[in-house]
Amino acid sequence: MMSNYTVYIGLYIKDALEVINRNSKGAVAVVESDGTLIQLLTDGDIRRLILEGYALDTKLSGIVMKRQTITVEIGTEAHTAKMLLDEQEIDHLVYVNKDKSVAEIKHRRDLDPILLSSPHMGKDELRFIEEAFNTNWIAPLGPNVNEFEKQVCEITGAKHAVAVSSGTAAIHLALLNLNVQQGDYVLCSSLTFVASCNPILYQQATPVFVDSEPNTWNMCPKALLKAMQHIQDMGVKPKAIIVVNLYGQSSDMDSLIEISEQFNVPIIEDAAESLGAKYKGKHSGTFGKLGVFSFNGNKIITTSGGGMLISDSKEMIEQSLHRATQARNNAPYYLHSEVGFNYRMSNILAGIGRGQLNVLEERVKRRREIYNRYVEGLSSITELEFMPELEGYYSNRWLTAATLNPNKTEKKVTELLQHLAKQNIEARHVWKPMHTQPLFKDVIYFTATEHSVSDYLFENGLCLPSGSNLTDTAQDRVIQEIKRFFE
Ligand SMILES: Cc1ncc(COP(=O)(O)O)c(C=O)c1O
């Protein structure tokens, strides 16, 4: 006679309180024996009754006020439900099934937006910003910038680093380090965010896209080998290979490095999404000739906007520092002998970065926990297959990504995303592969077989809310809505 949301009218105030205690909604639906709703009873109602002198063993039938309860059908969109709460100036809604039985109770906060990945500050960021203000280091240089670079090197094991205004700027500087110029060939993972390859176009170079492999979702070594052989047969030597570590997971670096060495073409590791991840015990981002991190607002740690270029080559990092600060030569006046950029990171933002680095390990741990909670909570939905993590890989699980297996369900990712959006839950498609973008319509693309893995991952893949500040309750809401979608 009691569920998580209902209590039978023949029971007592104490029983109603027990349900409220269990469901953490602050309310319970009092029902007839057939489950029909009589009215909603909030913990505030009960508090008032007790103050009036009612005892815990008072029968609910003796106290229930014939007050109208607002109900909505299960599946009602979050914004409609929220409007109703506002109009009625109430905090709870009873959701009913088609047969009018009570399905659940939602509190106002259960309708709040759940974001994909929002910034999550620690306790030290403000202190470093304040220090910058107090010492008037409000410039794209200063002690926070130096310290931020030093700490990223210490954490990742990189030898040298330069903090810049974005991950995109870092990729651009990396291409300049490798002397990428007009007409040069640069290979890049196709399944990525456009920022990985936009800098190839800044240099008027020619991108060549390479497919993913199903194990890591990242660049497929067999497809890369095919691409390299094809380009070699054209009599051309590419200038760089941009290997992207998607959603916090390293690529198969051993195999990719072997190919890069075989053809003597350096790797730029786009680790914008994989700071804190490891491959065979070594930090993601440190495998290429150059590595790139992003501190954009949605990343595992953020400086609101920012990036870093790392390398074991002191010369390359010094060159990049020079170019990132307008390529000013050492002279008593403004002297310039090559093109420069205004790419340096501000000392204020580097202060945020220092604070965020202090919690990086915690953030990785929490994101991995969130991934594991999804896998466990959705284990009954066999149509949903999560991005794997092979032995020797340690993903930071920046975003929990999964695919809907089209052999197991007719349902489409777009439908699931729409379903979640209606409940104010932000989930996203997996990146749309670069070889399918109008911007790159004439670019050549290599796959290992006739089957394009990146196209499959895009058509069937999605990313779920994964912010390290996502609460268990909010995540349970996502899990419940995904389950409802498959029911
Ligand atoms: C794979 C990848 N590369 C590059 C970037 C560019 O970083 P930023 O936004 O800091 O320019 C991002 C993120 O935005 C990214 O996800």
Features:
four-stranded antiparallel sheet, alpha/beta, CBS-domain, 16 helices, binds pyridoxal-5'-phosphate, 3 domains, Aspartate Aminotransferase, domain 1, single chain, Aspartate Aminotransferase, domain 2, 487 residues, eight-stranded mixed sheet
Structure description:
Helix 7 packs across helix 11, helix 9 (221-233) packs parallel to helix 10 and helix 13 packs parallel to helix 16. The chain is 35% helix and 17% strand. The chain is of the alpha/beta class and 487 residues long. The protein has helices at residues 13-23, 43-51, 60-63, 78-88, 125-134, 143-156, 167-177, 198-202, 221-233, 253-263, 314-324, 347-357, 360-377, 413-422, 453-460, 472-486, and strands at 6-8, 27-31, 37-42, 71-73, 92-96, 102-107, 160-164, 185-189, 206-210, 240-244, 267-270, 278-279, 282-283, 290-294, 307-311, 384-386, 393-394, 400-404, 428-429, 445-446, 461-464. The chain has three domains: 6-111, Roll (CBS-domain), CATH 3.10.580.10; 125-357, Aspartate Aminotransferase, domain 2 (3-Layer(aba) Sandwich), CATH 3.40.640; 360-486, Aspartate Aminotransferase, domain 1 (Alpha-Beta Complex), CATH 3.90.1150.10. The mean pLDDT is 96. The chain has 16 helices and 21 strands. It has an eight-stranded mixed sheet with strand order 7-15-14-11-10-8-9-20, sandwiched between helices. Strands 16-18-21-19 form a four-stranded antiparallel sheet. A three-stranded mixed sheet has the order 1-2-3. The radius of gyration is 27 Å and the shape is elongated. The longest helix has 18 residues, at 360-377.
